[in-house]
Amino acid sequence: MTSMTKSQVSFLDRELSQLAFNRRVMAQAEDPTIPVLERLRYLCIMSSNLDEFFEVRVASLLAAASLDGGLDDHPALAASLERVSNECHELVRRQYEIFNTAVLPEMKAQGIHIVRHSQRNEAQRAWVKDYFERDVRPLLTPIGLDPAHPFPQVVNKSLNFIVALNGKDAFGRGTAIAIVKAPRVLPRVIRLPDHLSKEEGISFVLLSSVIHAHIAELFAGRDVLAYSQFRVTRDSDLWVDEDEVKNLRQALKGELQGRAYGRSVRIEVAKNCPPELSQFLLDQFGLDQTRLYRVDGPVNMVRLGEIVEQARRPELRFPPFTAGVLAKTVNNDIFATIRKHDILLHHPFQSFQTVIDFIRSAALDPAVVAIKQTVYRTGMNSDLMEALIAAARSGKEVTVVVELMARFDEEANINWADKLEQAGAQVVYGVVGLKTHAKIALVIRREEGGLAYYAHLGTGNYHPTTTKFYTDFGVLSCQPELGRDVNEVFMHLTSLAKPQRMHHLWLAPFALQDQIIKAIKNEAKIAKAGRPGRIIAKINALTDEPVIRALYAASRDGVKIDLIVRGACMLKPGVPGLSENIRVRSIIGRFLEHSRIYYFRNDLAHDVMLASADWMNRNLLRRIEVAFPVLDRALKRRVVAEGLTPYLKDNSNAWELDDHGVYHRRKPRGKQKPFSAQQHLMESLGTPAAMPVE
Known about the structure:
Elements: H1 14-30, H2 36-66, H3 75-109, E1 112-114, H4 122-136, E2 143-144, E3 160-166, E4 177-181, E5 189-191, E6 202-206, H5 207-214, E7 223-234, H6 248-259, E8 264-270, H7 275-285, E9 292-295, H8 305-311, E10 325-326, H9 334-340, E11 343-347, H10 353-364, E12 368-375, H11 383-393, E13 397-402, H12 410-423, E14 426-428, E15 435-436, E16 440-447, E17 450-458, E18 470-477, H13 480-495, E19 506-508, H14 512-528, E20 534-539, H15 545-556, E21 560-565, E22 582-587, E23 592-593, E24 596-600, E25 607-611, H16 617-621, E26 623-629, H17 633-649, E27 654-657, E28 663-665, H18 677-685, E29 690-691
Parallel strand pairs: 1-6, 8-9, 10-29, 12-13, 13-14, 15-26, 18-23, 20-21, 21-22
Antiparallel strand pairs: 2-4, 3-4, 3-7, 5-6, 7-8, 11-18, 12-16, 16-17, 17-18, 19-26, 20-24, 22-27, 24-25, 25-26, 27-28
Helix pairs in contact: 1-2, 1-3, 2-3, 4-5, 10-11, 11-12, 14-15, 17-18
């Protein structure tokens, strides 16, 4: 078979593919079989996803256009932005349509009300007025615009109001526009007292509605002609010249202060905002009409997630789920258990507590002499970080590689870096220019015969909260070669020396992309020899063009390929002569699919790799990433049986991608029974009873 030329290879649009993921999330909010508060949560998740899309992807496209002459000099980029803009506007329109015509009515039917000013009775209006006077008005600072009062700085994604005024101000001047910024310290969702709730249900008012109802009172002696809430979204990518700064942590602290005022990329206003006011805002923020989004509801739907928590209606949410917990070992000795055999953990179906216990045990064990761990995301509160601090204070050698550039977690990571250093830990920030995204921990223990290595390697972050909502795999092992490989990665990250040859790990940016392509080509070689070639990969995104080309070539050589890609996918499946042997599906369910699994049949060797890396250029070439093999045969079978096979059988939460980039919801066919991979795993792994250690 002749090799493909570049002109023969085609890719789907990355940005549109990412937006298609949000369509699939939005479809969950449309599903009447899902509890209504979870449907509301999906709308909030979609809003959060779109915020980040604008803050990062749209911002980067606009920045690229501004580097050399603007969009007029970049017709391809301009066309891409136009397609993205059209799709975003349609997504937002549909999102608010679902909110207003499906989710809100169902919430009302279940006794949960968001009460607008026009819907409030006299008692409710009196309570809201009192709340406004007592808790809101003292914090407001209306700004009438004139040469001495220029347009104020508006924080990224904050709630604000623009007001058109008639008449003259106290000094006899005709200031026509005022800006009111909603205090950030106030809740955006306020629950009314029970005795004021409608129909003996639960009633909420939004802060935006409270301010709307009383905004005229802020301008005594003036007529309010029109007003609208608005929100601006800004470029939120932090940038520091890592070759120039002497202290990355200090430089980032300075950058974080400016993130809230980055370049504007989007403005949201109320649907009925007068054109002259919306145009005034566009002019102030230097944006054109394509960046304006008129919404039929609150401009920040993310904050409606507070209703899900405040309503306290468990029957309107997913049924409670308890993760499986490994059975207690003899004397609670986790190291003795790991010495017997590797332990495989499948989160959130199995508890992350085992990993916390592993690090805590290491911190307390006098035989442990050193602990090393990477930190990408761990949250503001973390038992793991506290255990590392305790270990450092007790005199153990503690090394922590903290990724300061983990987007939107920079502040939390800086705080932990400060605390760890104060406790005596050695803290480093990875490699200049490369994010450290690997999820590895190493415990070095003094035992008979010398030092023993105990390693944890995972596909997800050391974040106890997200481990309850993200699907991930982790392995605890004391296999000597694997432990030495992990230690070599830490030596590389701290010393910046070239890593030695690995026995088991595939390390980015040095070898991971090459190893993946080599494994793909090996399956192609097997298929050309007339034996079955088989590849299954479960990843969050597939956008790396060299890997996609290798998959296309393998498909042409007869390799059967199944790709389970949660988010953006630039590969076109099912194209005759190019990818007819490739199927792509995406799973959207109760939990966020986050695990990365690479399976290669390899003539019945059944190679199974777990990884921190998606098949994206940034992961394979611009980050420190680790892919690691599952060496134990029984655990290998478990990864396939739990992490791949159910997802290929799923006919309830699966979406299949066609060659035009369109996803189609998979439904049971014929006499098939509905099957959800996540539900299956909850039932088979998640039980309150203690689970035997595999």
